[in-house]
Amino acid sequence: MQFTIKQIAHLLNGEVKGDDSLTVSKLAKIEQGVPGDISFLANQKYEHFIYTTKASAVIVGKDFVPKKEISAALIIVKDPYNSFTQLLEEYQKILNFSKKGLEQPVFVGQGTEIGEGAYQGAFSYVGNNTKIGKNVKIYPQVYIGDNVTIGDNTLIYAGVKIYSNTIIGNNCVFHAGAVIGSDGFGFAPQEDGTYKTIPQLGNVLIEDNVSIGANTTIDCATMGSTIIRQGVKIDNLVQIAHNVEIGKNTVIAAQTGIAGSAVIGENCVFGGQVGVVGHISVANGTKVGAQTGITRGIKKENTSVAGKPVSELNDYLRSVAVFRKLPQLEKQVRELEKRLEELIAEGVFS
Amino acid sequence: MQFTIKQIAHLLNGEVKGDDSLTVSKLAKIEQGVPGDISFLANQKYEHFIYTTKASAVIVGKDFVPKKEISAALIIVKDPYNSFTQLLEEYQKILNFSKKGLEQPVFVGQGTEIGEGAYQGAFSYVGNNTKIGKNVKIYPQVYIGDNVTIGDNTLIYAGVKIYSNTIIGNNCVFHAGAVIGSDGFGFAPQEDGTYKTIPQLGNVLIEDNVSIGANTTIDCATMGSTIIRQGVKIDNLVQIAHNVEIGKNTVIAAQTGIAGSAVIGENCVFGGQVGVVGHISVANGTKVGAQTGITRGIKKENTSVAGKPVSELNDYLRSVAVFRKLPQLEKQVRELEKRLEELIAEGVFS
Amino acid sequence: MQFTIKQIAHLLNGEVKGDDSLTVSKLAKIEQGVPGDISFLANQKYEHFIYTTKASAVIVGKDFVPKKEISAALIIVKDPYNSFTQLLEEYQKILNFSKKGLEQPVFVGQGTEIGEGAYQGAFSYVGNNTKIGKNVKIYPQVYIGDNVTIGDNTLIYAGVKIYSNTIIGNNCVFHAGAVIGSDGFGFAPQEDGTYKTIPQLGNVLIEDNVSIGANTTIDCATMGSTIIRQGVKIDNLVQIAHNVEIGKNTVIAAQTGIAGSAVIGENCVFGGQVGVVGHISVANGTKVGAQTGITRGIKKENTSVAGKPVSELNDYLRSVAVFRKLPQLEKQVRELEKRLEELIAEGVFS
Predict the structure, then answer these.
(1) Upstream peptide bond of A105 is cis (omega within 30 degrees of 0)
(2) Helix/strand/coil (H, E, C) string of chain A?
(3) Mapping DSSP to helix (H, G, I), strand (E, B) and coil, where does residue C13 land?
């Protein structure tokens, strides 16, 4: 997409100094800008870059007074950082919602309804009796099974797989390769050493404003629903097992795994590669360090935890500090023993 | 799918008390039942729910005597829990095998044979000279390469990718996004710091009754086969490297990784996020705790192990218990040293 | 593919002893060879297998003198191991580049150019204004977005998803299910506990000779590029976050995760399941043990590190050795204390 500097200044309610007929098509950091880019200057520390930047336009504050010549056009606004963020968001919206209409071939089952403003990429598949809201973007090679419900303005990137009976809210984003509703991992051991599959007949329920990362997997419940509450943000390659519930506005970084029937509170923050055992609860507001192993429930709200098995963060850090000195500690103990032996041998005690 | 209560009672060899013409379409826990659901009561602890449940039907035992009025129809059987499990399994079978026939467009290569009773979802791809058994369900956007063999009754969910030359048995299940037969990770370091790719010309061999989780990856062997024996159950996002062999009826939880040429025994149980180094063997019946790092072979059968580097479970738990008290232990050592110094300084020893 | 032994001998500049009209179609280890296979004998230790192998042909050295009868045809060359490796590579090349032409249906957007010698598998998708070089192999169900650039001889296996604006060099390999260019995980916390999405407008830049494993995910930069330098080899299920840079010829094993804006040096080797925190640098030539947690930058080049938090490998091993003896160490400290108490109680000090 290309915009003139004049159009952008108008959007940001700013004034242009320079050639406002030039077009820009990308956003860039001021030190990396090339012709066709627009950048911003909000921090004096970076001022020297404005005199050498190759960007076509730079957003600056009202109080900016150039000390040398500047080749870029300037867009003068009240708060350049806010204006740039606004521009980022507008640009994202345009990118997200520029796709519209139907690319052939697609497959749509019987009894299925797709709302207005949709994008259906080529080779996308929607099963039977599925209800899809307005402005939903279904990228190429997406699979949506039977009896699925999806709210308005949800973005589903290429190759996402959504099993039958899944329920998804409004304004969600699913990144490429995510799998929603695969069978929970449930097998009953038999006497002959084999396992019998426990049927997984529940579904996945995802509320509004949820974001799911690339190649993340969320299993359906055995019965009932695996539940992702509103505002939850999940990174790439995360595993959410059957019957888990994630409380609203909780954030989970990449490669974390949450085992079956665990209940995670609201407003938690999980680092990457965390593991959570099944059938436990984690209190609201818990902050979990990367690679933590949560082996028991966490009852106190708003604590920071780390380590495996999990401890309060400060206890963990104190133990780890000694762990690093263990060879020294062992030596000290050996010397104490030797010393005491020597003293006894010297007969000082008798 | 909808069934009358009469049909279900007939299937379960039970008697109906109430309106047997009502239809039900879902299975639910008694406390969560809504109209159209069928539930069960097997444990007296839950009896109070039967008087308030909104489910249309409840399966109960012959000895159940209602204490109040019940709105649901009752299906009276010998063992309500077993009957409900039977229903779950029937329902799963119907779900799994209800899909049949060909959805256009699909791609089928030359010399390929697909047995009767198959489902071929739209945008699925089967390469050349591939042999597929009876009742195999190939969901949309599945990729099956050239010279692949797949047995009867195998279920392949949406977007699974099976590379050329893979051999798969009967009654297997592959969840969405699983990748079978990608190149083993083999690169030979060269003198200039670059790496030369070691060709990976083997395949993957998967026996009967194997289940593979969503987005799990299994690499082909360098030469010969990466082998998954009968009855193995693998969860989501697991990595199985080239030339690995997994013994029969072994269960592996999510996000575990097994490095090249490791040999895992029969009837092992792996927790999630376990790592296994390459070129080692793990004995039959080993139980591996979540997040364990198996850094050496395990020779004794039927042991429980944990930690990194791996120890017997009890040794690990004892070490971990002290780890949590390390700051205290360090303090004790410091005090012992101080005490001894003081005693020496006081001249008691001379 | 089938070749006569004569054709192979010609390729390897070798002489045949036996029937050179037989055809072979697979490569195998000498102890596993079946009719139709070709194998090799380079190490005397394996000589006894040549008298029993079922392989149709065996590559041997000029100095090999049979002690018994051999049923296989022999191809006599100067260096049998090198010849076999040459054969492996030729075979791989044939496999990789045998696919050509267009399988219908495919989707190609407007303004897109695809070079000669391409393979476009059925149900593959290429967006608008994308430039694809010569001999690029696009397997079925691949998604390539808008404004993407891909160099010559790059292999893209089934179901790979490449987001818009990605730039990819020559001779790269992408295994099935890999996702390139998904949004970085960036969310700004708001006062009401919700998160606002930070637009991710950068891209991914992948240089020449890079290999990316199955179901691996590489996020785009917030602004600018996430960069994978030439010769980097990345295994399956790896997570590379936004704005990361990986130096040339670095090798990363499966299930490793690298957080946002981390900079990894050249010629590093990462074991599996490693975690790297964001905004740090790892020096050139660092060797990282499996399951390490890199919680701080590593400045010294060519060191070996391990543990969590990360230490130099030898320090880590020394601490771990004591960790395993912690219960014993604790007991020693308790005994020292008791001993000292007893001595004091006995009044020897006064």
Answers:
(1) yes
(2) CCEEHHHHHHHHCCEEECCCCCEECEECCCCCCCCCEEEECCCHHHHHHHCCCCCCEEEEECCCCCCCCCCCEEEEECCHHHHHHHHHHHHHHHHHHCCCEECCCCEECCCCEECCCCEECCCCEECCCCEECCCCEECCCCEECCCCEECCCCEECCCCEECCCCEECCCCEECCCCEEEECCCCEEECCCCCEEECCCCCEEEECCCCEECCCCEEECCCCCEEEECCCCEECCCCEECCCCEECCCCEECCCCEECCCCEECCCCEECCCCEECCCCEECCCCEECCCCEECCCECCCCCEEECCCCEEHHHHHHHHHHHCCHHHHHHHHHHHHHHHHHHHHCCCCC
(3) coil
A149 touches chain C (CB under 8 A): no
Residue that wins the pLDDT comparison between C42 and C94: C42
Which one of C10, C48, C175, C242 is the catalytic residue?
C242
The number of C-beta contacts closer than 8 angstroms across A and C is 175
Identify the closest residue of chain A to B29 by CA–CA distance: A223
- pLDDT category of residue C210 using cuts at 50, 70 and 90: very high
Higher per-residue pLDDT: B139 or A43: B139
Q: Which of residues 37-96 of B touch C (CB under 8 A)?
A: none
Determine contact: C151 vs chain A, CB below 8 A. Answer: no
Chain B environment of C266 (Cβ under 8 Å): 193
pLDDT in tens, C49-58: 999 999 999 9
pLDDT of C1 reads: 63
Instruction: For residues C308 and A40, give the distance between their C-alpha atoms in angstroms, rounded to a whole number.
Output: 40
Report the run of H or E that residue C95 belongs to, with start and end: helix C80-97
List, in order, residues 6 or more apart from A35 with CB less than 8 Å away: A54, A55, A56
At A93 the pLDDT is 78
pLDDT > 80? residue A30:
yes
Nearest to C290 by CA among C264, C251, C318: C251
Digit-coded pLDDT (tens) for C217-228: 999 999 889 999
Asked if C324 lies within 8 A of B332 by C-beta distance, the reply is: no
The answer for residues whose C-beta is within 8 angstroms of residue C321's C-beta and 6 or more apart is A327
> What digits encode the pLDDT tens for the residues A146-205?
999 999 999 999 999 999 999 999 999 999 999 999 999 999 999 999 999 888 889 999
pLDDT at B309: 87
pLDDT of residue B132: 98
pLDDT at residue B240 tops 60:
yes
Would you say residue C25 has pLDDT above 70?
A: yes
Facing residue for B125 by CB, picked from C122, C251, C273: C122
Residue A119, beta-bridge partner list? A101, A137
3-state secondary structure of C321: helix
Residue C339 confidence class, pLDDT cut points 50, 70, 90: confident
Q: What residues of A are in contact with residue B175 (Cβ under 8 Å)?
A: 179, 182-183
